[in-house]
Structure formats: structure tokens, C-alpha cells
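User: C-alpha cells for both sequences below?

Assistant:
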Amino acid sequence: MDEEVLANFLKSEYPQTVAVIVSRVTSEHAARVLARLPEGFALDVVSRLLRIDTVQKDILDGIEKTLRVEFMNNLSDNKQPDSHERIADIFNSLDRSTENRLMGELEKNNPKNAEKIKGLMFTFEDMLNIDSAGIQALLRKVEQERLVVALKGTSQEIRDLFLTNMSERAGRMMEEDMESLGPVRASEVEAAQNEIISIAKELAVSGEIYIASANEDDELIF
């Protein structure tokens, strides 16, 4: 269901009902829906997502019958990720302004949960926690045109991370492409970065790369 239609429909529902629905759709879809809800209402939904547990099938069936919407067809699956992980995934899919707004409110109202969610989120800067072999594996999966856009406006440290893991010729071409690209909308940069983040996560899940946590002290021994 289109997120605009869904968001307009959910505005009249109880936040707890919306939290149940949001917990059952993909993180990307949930993020787009949350971004279209009134700020206070969206924050209430996020707070309830933190407390949501496995929902009983009869409750889900009741919601499904009441709402009668197509995306609720698979509500009988009771497997739920950790609520903090779920919200971190949703926040990763939000545009920066919405993410910053909701996180700011969450930090004021629930600082402990906000800190835990931030620790679970994966940002483009977290690429620094991937070793050289992992970056090279990532480069083989990423389209060069998208990487050029993603690197616009990033720190030199992030740029060097990718450039030093390319051949000298490829790195030089990448720098030339970035220089000739000209101004790029922030939303386009975010979209390109999110695409690369998604690829990195997929590679991490499949075991092809390893992403260390920012405060991880345990060293790898070769």
C-alpha cells in the first residue's frame, strides 16, 4: 500500500495499533510512513514500538478484520526482532531531517533507549569500521556512479578509505568524477549512501565482510 495513503489512514488510529502495523512491514516502508505522520504522533508510535512484544494471534486477527487492508495479510507470523533493532532499522531508512527530529525528541523523552538505538544504527561513517578486505568486497558490489554521489560531502577520511582500496588508476578516475560532478542535492547523496549501507549490511549478514562496532576493543589476529 502506498505510504501516503497508509499514513493518512493511520492518523485516525490509536498509536498502539499503528505500532503493531509498523512492526509488521519492512523498515523502509515503516520509515516512509513515520515520516508522513504528525511529529508528536510519530514519536508516540516509536515509544510504543520500544515496548511492543510478540503480539497474540487473536489480537492481530482482530486488527486485520478491523482495518481490512492488504498489507496485513501475513500478520500471523509471530517472529519479531528486538524492538531496539527494529527501530534502528527504521531510523536508518528515514531521511536525515526526520531522523534527527525524531531522535532528538526521543533523546529528551527516553535517553537510555535513544542511546541504545543509536548504538545499533549503521551510518555511512561506520564504513570506517570495515577492514580493507571488506571495503574491497563492497567495492565489487557497488556501482561506481553511486559511489561518486555517496562520497560527495563526506569527510576526507571516508573518501580515503575507498580510494586507498582501489587501484591507483581507478582512484584517480574516481577523484576526477567527483570533481566534475558538480553540486548534488543532499537527498541524492543520502539515497546513494543508503544504497551502499544496504549492500554492506547484506554482505555482513552473508559473512563476506565484517563490521566492527565503534567501541570494539577485540582485535582480529591473522
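Moving on to the next sequence.
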Amino acid sequence: MLNASELEAPQSKASRSQFLSTARAAKVLGLSTTLVQTLVDQGELKGWKTRGGHRRIAFDSISEYQSHVHMALQRKVKTENRQHISVMVENSEWIPAFKNDLAQWQLPIDVSFFESVTEAILDLSTHRPDMLVMELSAPLVQQEKTLQALENFNKRGKSPLPVVIVTQEKSLLSSVPYPSASTIQLVPGPISPIWLHAYLIGIVASSRL
């Protein structure tokens, strides 16, 4: 884009009417005059200078800038409204296949994959997801410790994190008592692409109700 010093002043009265003063442009955009001047200098807005050194901003470029900002805000809101799901798969060889399937499904969900329980739990303190799905295949004692760690995490937080534990250990549910049964759910495993696809579709459907 050309900046203010590179644009020629419009010659006709009609064309001059399509330009606004810096103060008027600032009022239309809801910005300070200093920021409007900066946008002109950076080429974000088109304008020219009068012989007295006053800027005149093209009305069309103001409309284009407003549309650009509006679209950027819409993209931001759309991204922020997407649910973030963390999925821990103990068999790391499955992760590339899951990522490939996820790209093909094109679901409005952001999914992060983890290869270990430790990695997934440590990530909760910095990037809390909307839901955590964990596949556990370790010995029962280790699965009990993982379940207890997640329960302790939920007790410390203001709002419990929904957790789905996928396990083939049928005795896990009865072996460790925990009060937040509504936030930590155990389902039979193992995780498969079909299972994950169906579960994520269910999350999308429930979020639209």
C-alpha cells in the first residue's frame, strides 16, 4: 500500500468529498488520531496531505479496514469457541494415524495428543483443556494412582475437569472410591479411530444443543 506522502491529492471536488480528516476518521473507527496517523504511515489506511500538511483519509480504505478488523475478530471468536480436547494414547504408534484421521474428519475441535500419563497431567497446569481423554493399559495399581491423581487435581480446582478414562481393567471402578463420578468417567477400551471419531462427534453435537 502507498502511504500518505506517496498519494496524490484528488483534483475534483467530488473525489475530495470521499476523504475524511484524521479526527473524523478516528471518530468513525473509534481510535485515537495518533493511531490513525500511524495506520496511514504504515499503509493500513490510504490518504494524502493538504498543502497545509493536514491528512485526508480515503473513506473506502476506512471501510476496508473496518471489514478487515471485523473478519479478524470473527475468526478469533470462532477459534476461542472451539473446544480443546487432550487425548493420551499409551501406544504412541497410533498417534500419527489418529492425527491423520482427525484432519480428514474436519471436526470443529482442537485435539492435542500425548504419549504418556505424566506428560498429559503436567500439561493440565499450563494448558487446561475442556476435556481429557486417557487410555490406560498399565497394571491396575498404576491405573489406580493415575485415577487418584486426577481426582486430586479436580479437588484443587474451582471447576472439575471432565475426564474420560478408557481402560480394559474392569475392576478399576470398584477398586478406588472417588466422589466426583460425574466428572471422571470410565469406559471400556481400547481407544480406536472408530471410538474416537464417535466420541468427538458426540462432543460436537452436545455443544450445539
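User: Anything stand out in the second?

Assistant: Residues 1-16 have pLDDT under 50 and may be disordered.
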